[in-house]
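FORM 12-B: Structure-to-Sequence Request
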């Protein structure tokens, strides 16, 4: 993808360099547009090259050093469940209803 973008930006830079000048010259940016397009082309080319080199180094590193076995079991990674959030147990029994010996609740006056 970066190589494709580099080619596109290089094409834009060449087009802007070869086109006849139009307008009054510089705009808001003091750098010519073709220079900006060339900088973007070089940036994408450098990213493409660095990704390519990193990939080849990673593949060489995997071939030289075999992968070490895991030191922990996968079951060690599972935390113990929080008992406050276990909803598989039946709900606790309802509190006993107030009987005739209990005083009636107080009513507030309006």
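FORM 12-B RESPONSE
SEQUENCE OUT:
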């Amino acid at each position: 993808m970066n190589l494709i973008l580099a080619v596109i930006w290089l094409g834009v830079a060449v087009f802007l360099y070869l086109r006849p000048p139009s307008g009054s010259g510089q705009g808001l940016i003091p750098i010519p547009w073709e220079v900006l397009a060339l900088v973007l082309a070089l940036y994408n080319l450098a990213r493409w090259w660095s990704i390519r080199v990193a990939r080849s180094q990673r593949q060489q590193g995997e071939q030289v050093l075999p992968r070490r076995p895991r030191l922990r079991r996968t079951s060690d990674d599972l935390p113990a469940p929080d008992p406050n959030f276990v909803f598989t147990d039946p709900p606790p029994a309802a509190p006993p209803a107030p009987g005739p010996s209990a005083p009636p609740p107080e009513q507030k006056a309006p």
